[in-house]
Design goal:
Blueprint lengths: L1 E5 L2 H11 L2 E2 L7 E5 L2 E5 L4 H21 L11 E10 L8 E9 L5 E2 L11 E6 L15 E4 L2 H8 L8 E9 L8 H24 L5 H4 L2 H14 L3 H17 L19 H14 L15 H6 L8 E5 L6 H8 L5 E5 L3 H4 L6 H6 L3 E4 L7 E2 L12 E3 L3 E2 L4 E2 L4 H4 L5 E4 L2 H12 L5 E4 L10 H4 L1 H9 L4 E7 L5 H4 L7 E6 L3 H7 E2 L4 H14 L2 E9 L5 H15 L5 E8 L1 E3 H10 L10 E4 L2 E4 L2 H12 L8 E4 L2
Length: 637
């Protein structure tokens, strides 16, 4: 379902005519027009009117859909568009259609950032929302800026109900800050001339709802789900569970849904208990296929281009405080075609409400910021500390370019965008200050990303290798990357441990999307070991699915045959474990994941594998066939 929000009747007229919209006479609170799966609401001018009208339009469509039990219309399947005219500087030719990438409330100074997961061919612009029409743009506002009176009200209201990736703002330049020149006819003409581009943008944006019932459920699937609702008398919460489980099944298999009610016609359904039992049987039939029966589907490069999504790193948000840093300049020089969006603080983009991690991951963007405090953390209790008393980690970056199904970052962070803190020198000062109080320190370099995978972009690993030289400091760099060329041109020293996470090839292909093959990682380990680096291999998390004993046995043999034992500091092994609160968010991000529903139990707020001991003991026995016991390190709760 698509909802267009405009302020003025002249802005609405071209849509009403072209889309053949009809006035919904049952609605009296505002002017609402509809046809099939598209609606338009006229809010009136000003941010308060816009917020009220947007709220009413969204709530009316969602409420109506719930009454009709229409699973194709819900908050994850409704896309909203704020479209209208706007004033701009003379740099914008009249009639130019722009896409809004940032909104500034001139009255309060607040800044809002739409999610930019959909690619559009027209210019990006910053929207200044004002109380009264502007006669001129201030000097600071002229950088790709336009102004209106409704954008901030629309966005603040829409983000209360709708995921950010489904909120879009498009403006047509109607005047050069000369609102007194506007007439009803000129506004209507301005929108009408841009209408082909606008309708194309609306279609492109709506098509990108990749995980909605509207896109996944078809014909017989919808009929089946409706029959389940009726026979089981589902509550709203149960309907959501049913939809989520069905969408998870379809996203992991080639479809369609299985026969959900087959063989149940004879069942007596006169009580709530009987209906609940039938519902449980339906959910069992919607359990995702086992790992042996499906492969994670990968989209080819051509499919990515056709998808209409924004390219990764096509937009770079830059904190004002980080703009003049030399690392910022170096990074921006690598992306001359990127749209650079100034922000006050990284959290205004990273910590927004209503973000969808899984969809953002497909169009991951970059945020450059300065870290102001908290440069050093004590190591987590559930992370292996290898017997180190002074065990710490830092966060030079947040999020990772890889997409591992079990990654705790999906449960920890509200956004999938990559944050890089450019002021590495302040992190290093924190280390030096701590070393004045401690005899030595063990540092995991940036737990919350894979720094080696982005080394060519940021250069952190080489910098920290040199920083740690000749200091009572041991640094572990954990990675899945094979980008080791820069390391082979850097002199190693005993204070550096390069730690690779490995999984058997079938599990890496299925659960570690975007990562290099296991064989490639092993060759990279052999190269850096031959160059003189200390290495550590981490088989973590162990995934006891399918023929896991045979697969992990083969992995251990491959390690023994490829990696020089003398260079290997430890062979570390552990099973999946994550804090309970992060786990709940991870389940929301990965509904139906077989990995996240396989024999997990809680212990002291930590979710871990219930058969953890048996799995580790088996692999310890296998590992001792190839490695001395003193180098095998097990990690369990």
């Amino acid at each position: 379902m698509r909802l267009i929000v405009v302020a003025l009747r002249p802005e609405a007229e071209p849509f009403i005519t072209a889309l053949k919209l009809k006035r919904d006479l049952a609605v009296t609170a505002c002017e609402l027009f509809r046809r099939d799966d598209i609606a338009l609401v006229i809010t009136g001018t000003g941010k308060v009117s816009s917020a009220i009208g947007t709220t009413y339009g969204i709530q009316h469509l969602l409420s109506e859909a719930r009454k009709c039990h229409d699973s194709t219309v819900h908050e994850k399947a409704l896309t909203v568009f704020n479209i209208g005219t706007a004033g701009g500087s003379p740099d914008h030719p009249l009639g130019t259609l722009v896409r809004i990438v940032q909104i500034v409330d001139r009255e309060t100074g607040e800044t809002f950032s739409p999610d930019l997961t959909v690619r559009h061919p027209f210019p990006a612009a910053r929207l200044i929302s004002v109380e009264k029409p502007l006669a001129t743009l201030e000097e600071d506002d002229k950088l790709f800026s336009v102004s209106d009176m409704e954008g901030v009200g629309f966005f603040q209201a829409a983000q209360k109900f709708i995921p950010l990736q489904q909120i879009h703002l498009f403006k047509v330049i109607s005047d050069h800050c000369a609102p007194e020149m506007l007439t009803r006819d000129s506004i209507q003409t301005c929108i009408a001339q841009a209408l082909p581009e606008i309708t194309d943008a609306i279609s492109r944006s709506a098509q990108e709802l990749s995980t909605t019932a509207q896109q996944l459920f078809r014909g017989k699937d919808l009929t089946q789900l409706e029959m389940v609702r009726e026979r089981c008398s589902l509550t709203s919460a149960q309907q959501k569970i049913l939809n989520d489980r069905a969408m998870a099944f379809l996203s992991l298999s080639e479809g369609p849904l299985p026969e959900l009610l087959a063989g149940t016609d004879h069942l007596e359904l006169s009580t709530k208990v009987q209906k609940k039992k039938l519902f449980s049987r339906v959910l069992e039939r919607l359990s995702p296929p086992t790992p042996e029966l499906y492969q994670v589907r990968k989209r080819s490069h051509s499919e990515e281009r056709k998808s209409g999504r924004s390219r990764p790193l096509s937009h770079i948000y830059v904190e004002k405080s980080a703009r003049e840093h030399k690392r910022t300049e170096q990074i921006l020089s690598r992306f001359p075609d990127a749209t650079v969006i100034p922000i006050t603080h990284y959290k205004e983009v990273f910590n927004r409400n209503q973000q969808r991690f899984r969809d953002q991951k497909k169009s991951q963007q970059l945020i450059l910021a300065r870290r102001e405090n908290e440069f050093l953390y004590h190591g987590s209790d559930i992370a292996p500390d290898f017997g180190e008393e002074n065990f710490f980690y830092n966060t030079l970056a947040l999020n990772c370019i890889y997409d591992c199904e079990y990654c705790y970052l999906q449960g920890m962070f509200p956004s999938a965008h990559l944050v890089a803190f450019v002021n590495s020198e302040d992190f290093q000062k924190a280390i030096l200050d701590r070393l004045e109080k401690l005899p030595s320190l063990y540092l995991c370099l940036s737990y919350d990303t894979d720094l080696l995978a982005i080394e060519d972009l940021f250069g952190y690993v080489r910098e920290w290798i040199e920083f740690s030289r000749n200091k009572p400091l041991t640094i572990e760099v954990r990675t899945k990357s094979v980008a080791v060329q820069s390391l082979l041109h850097t002199e190693p020293h005993p204070g550096i441990i390069l730690a690779w996470t490995l999984s058997p090839e079938p599990y890496a292909a299925q659960f570690e999307k975007g990562t290099p093959k296991t064989a490639s990682r092993l060759r990279a380990i052999a190269k850096v070991a031959a160059h003189g680096y200390r290495t550590r291999i981490c088989i973590d998390p162990i995934i006891p699915l399918g023929n896991w004993r045979e697969e992990y046995g083969k992995l251990l043999r491959d390690i023994a045959e490829t990696v020089d034992e003398e260079s290997l500091s430890e062979l570390s092994m552990g099973t999946f474990r994550i804090g309970k609160s992060y786990f709940k968010e991870l389940q929301k991000a990965r509904p139906g994941s077989p990995l996240l529903s396989h024999g997990l139990t809680e212990q002291n707020g930590i979710m871990h594998l219930s058969e953890e001991r048996a799995v580790l003991e088996y692999l310890q026995k296998e590992s001792l066939r190839y490695f001395p016991q003193e180098k095998v390190d097990l990690h369990a709760l």
